[in-house]
Design goal:
The complex is a heterodimer of chains A (118) and B (112). By secondary structure, chain A is mainly beta. Chain A has no helices and eleven strands. In chain A, the strands form two sheets. In chain A, strands 2, 4, 5, 6, 9, 10 and 11 form a seven-stranded mixed beta sheet that branches. The N and C termini of chain A lie far apart (37 Å). In chain B, strands 2, 4, 5, 9, 10 and 11 form a six-stranded mixed beta sheet that branches. A five-stranded antiparallel beta sheet of chain B has the order 1-3-8-7-6, with no helix packed on it. The chains are: A mainly beta (118), B mainly beta (112). At the A-B interface, strand 5, strand 9 and strand 10 of A face strand 5 and strand 10 of B.
């Protein structure tokens, strides 16, 4: 089955530093990837849609200059949290679209990256 | 506004019992309705999904019931097991390269 690999699984950084999270589709090409954020005991909230070779589309309220998304190839998207602050501490999860099944995309999710900003 | 409303927030079921989780949506343009299972510290995993042209889909112990006129769909877990204890999310999406919009989740605990 489709596999999405996300790295690192856990990262701790100091306030003010930048952190990069990678999301790779291992056995399929993904023209579109989605980045979600999940706070403890809450649902997944869409942050942005990442399209290969073009600029990401950010959801309302998500700072594009703070959360830099790059989708340079059909199998890799990266999320960089710039100048991280403690309030950015969260569980970041990427997902990749395998392609349409009867018109709707089936999304495969990575295992998530737990970011803790001290 | 909340595009999909999920209930209950938490659920405790005896081993062997039936777990039922419900979701309601507003936009009739949605045409893909999956359920995801998430264990602590892990990403969500697709459990089962349905399209609006069918009213029910069963895979093993998991069944989705879909009521298009009521704009509701539900997940039934038959013969619930302690290993089913997890958080379950319903989601909706449109056709094509569109993201999933998730419900708030239901924390299921199956007790022996």
């Amino acid at each position: 089955g489709a596999v999405v690999s996300q790295h690192p699984s856990r990262v701790i950084c100091k306030s003010g530093t930048s952190v990069k999270i990678e999301c790779r589709s291992l056995d399929f090409q993904a023209t579109t990837m989605f980045w979600y954020r999940q706070f403890p005991k809450q649902s997944l909230m869409l942050m942005a849609t990442s399209n290969e070779g073009s600029k990401a589309t950010y959801e309302q309220g998500v700072e594009k200059d703070k959360f830099l998304i790059n989708h340079a190839s059909l199998t890799l998207s990266t999320l960089t949290v710039t100048s991280a602050h403690p309030e950015d501490s969260s569980f970041y999860i990427c997902s990749a679209a395998q392609g349409a099944i009867s018109g709707a995309n089936v999304l495969t999710f990575g295992a998530g990256s737990r970011l803790t900003v001290l | 506004q909340q595009q999909v409303k999920q209930s209950p927030q938490s659920l405790i079921v005896q081993k062997g019992g039936i777990s039922i989780i419900n979701c309601a949506y507003e936009n009739t343009a949605f045409d893909y309705f999956p359920w995801y299972q998430q264990f602590p510290g892990k990403g969500p995993a697709l459990l089962i999904a349905i399209r609006p042209d069918v009213s029910e889909k069963k895979e093993g112990r998991f069944t989705i019931s879909f009521n298009k006129s009521a704009k509701q769909f539900s997940l039934h877990i038959m013969d619930s097991q302690p290993g089913d204890s997890a958080t379950y999310f319903c989601a909706v999406s449109y056709s094509g390269n569109t993201p999933l919009v998730f419900g708030k989740g239901t924390r299921l605990s199956v007790i022996a």
